């Protein structure tokens, strides 16, 4: 899950860096080409736990 704050900045919860960069690295370095990526967005009025549920 990639979380953004009210200003649209990505959260820095992971000690290893931004989750979006991890995702980009996985997509770029996959042994087989990845042809489809599905993204789901959750509304801005909910919290993280609501999004997980």
Q: What is the general shape?
A: globular
Q: List the helices and strands in order.
A: HH
Number of helices: 2
Helicity, in percent?
25-40%
Number of strands: 0
Biggest β-sheet strands, sense, barrel: none
SS strand fraction = under 5%
What does this structure look like?
With 53 residues, the protein is mainly α. The chain has one domain (1-53). The protein contains 2 helices and no strands. The protein has helices at residues 19-29, 48-52.
Q: What is the secondary structure topology, with strand pairs?
A:
Elements: H1 19-29, H2 48-52
Descriptive terms for the model:
mainly alpha, 2 helices, single chain
Short structural description:
With 53 residues, the protein is mainly alpha-helical. Helices cover 30% and strands 0% of the residues. The longest helix has 11 residues, at 19-29.
């Amino acid at each position: 899950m990639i979380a953004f704050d009210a200003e649209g900045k990505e959260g820095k919860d992971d000690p290893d860096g931004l989750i979006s960069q991890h995702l980009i690295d996985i997509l770029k370095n996959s042994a087989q080409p990845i042809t489809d990526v599905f993204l789901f967005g959750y509304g801005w009025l909910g919290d993280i736990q609501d999004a997980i549920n």
